[in-house]
């Protein structure tokens, strides 16, 4: 009788997307649990799909691409040493070819179950449905989990089950659900695995580096005129955003121990680094939003207890509770915008939330004006400083995102979609839902957006939030000798830079629009 061929052992696959971590990763936790129940020594593989053409189409920034690859190297090391799971990278030009590539991988490795965390954008959802259909014909199950938000889309609704259109009631409901203690972290099941074969790590890292180099070349070709600009940007982002879960966690702990104590006030000061700078990590999932939330709640509780304990010795440091709650509300904004896109998928295809407001404005597509805004040459110091900071560091402070977005949409009347795309191409934390939400808020076309008549004046914003013009002068050194009082006043600045003005020799343009006139015109347009 011929010997029976050994039955190939079934394997499990974790497909990482925007969740590049082991800690509190819903899909990974569920898969390890499932695999443990299914086999004594389960075989788990990990996968990440590199889709450069798709990334370019979605205007992903080079800074983020670089951060993803750096994070993948950290993830590969952690997966292998802690769980004996090998990370594989596959390349596909776009999402439809992604489906076939994963299908082939599953056949090759005898995969029975795949787990992933949801990505909520339209193309990603369509890709996942196509994969699910294709795999189910072959008996492979594709499990998906909610992981990107603290509370999943669809779970925070009005009493009649509809999505909130305004943030404050959403936030109250969100907080009341969380107060019931519903959110917990997802632990990793202990895997019965063989001793990790750490000899293969260099090989894995080489293959990641190889794909990184190919992707980098493509991005340099398509997004940059000069390679030196890109290299200098990457030098900065690598220093500011070291990769890895440990780094993200350290940043969270440090922020909650120190900077958060003045967050409520200091968060708006452009010259201060008073916010957590965790957005880049949250965007690609190096840290979990639930972990951020739970750690912040613990910190608030400690601040509360410390205050109660020191009741007779007032100490301003113990005012941190309110600051922490304010920070938590920012995490809620992040959830809110994700819930909004799931409820209104046409937003992902470029539609405004408030189509009536969007259609009232006669948006401009003047590329010469747009170019001035992109390069920081508008003649409005705070706007230009913010744009140059974005171009050189891949980051912009929240208030400045609002100021520059309002300037583009309500002083230059350029379609917010152009600005939205430009931000995505530059931001290391570029995230469709938050970026779109921020742009539509600023353009007054979004849900719970800024009222159309409340238009930020970039000069008075600078006076309030960059009093001594430290931020402006850092990014516009040509203005170093002009007093802050002049930089913060449009009429004085025009005079100072004019031919007969005291700073006529300074190589800096006159403000390209008169803010007061532009404001009136914007209000007229929105009134319709
Ligand atoms: P912190 O103040 O420490 O806040 C903590 C976290 O809360 C952030 O990391 C972020 O995840 C979340 N958060 C804070 N503010 C917001 C907000 N207004 N909306 C949604 N989430 C928020 N954020 C992105 O993560 N990616 C983007 O692409 C993005 N684009 C934006 C575009 C515009 C026009 C505007 C006005 C805002 C945008 N934001 C975006 C929101 C916000 O500016 C950044 O999240 C914040 O500046 C990141 O810095 P931080 O991590 O230090 O924030």
From TrEMBL:
GO annotation terms (biological process): nucleobase-containing compound metabolic process; response to light stimulus; response to stress
Positions contributing to FAD binding: 263, 275-279, 327, 330-337, 429-431
EC number(s) from the headed UniProt entry: 4.1.99.3
Record keywords: Chromophore, FAD, Flavoprotein, Lyase
One Pfam family it belongs to: DNA_photolyase
Domain of life (superkingdom): Bacteria
Cofactor binding, per record: Binds 1 FAD per subunit.
SUPFAM superfamilies noted in UniProt: Cryptochrome/photolyase FAD-binding domain (SSF48173), Cryptochrome/photolyase, N-terminal domain (SSF52425)
Keyword Cytoplasm: no
Name of the top EC class for this enzyme: lyase
Gene Ontology MF annotations: deoxyribodipyrimidine photo-lyase activity; DNA binding; FAD binding
Cofactor: FAD; (6R)-5,10-methylene-5,6,7,8-tetrahydrofolate
Keyword match Transmembrane: no
Domain Photolyase/cryptochrome alpha/beta positions: 10-150
Gene3D superfamilies in alphabetical order: 1.25.40.80, DNA Cyclobutane Dipyrimidine Photolyase, subunit A, domain 3, HUPs
Site entry: Electron transfer via tryptophanyl radical: 363, 416, 439
Similarity annotation: Belongs to the DNA photolyase class-1 family.
Protein name per Swiss-Prot or TrEMBL: Deoxyribodipyrimidine photo-lyase
Lineage: Bacteria, Pseudomonadati, Pseudomonadota, Gammaproteobacteria, Moraxellales
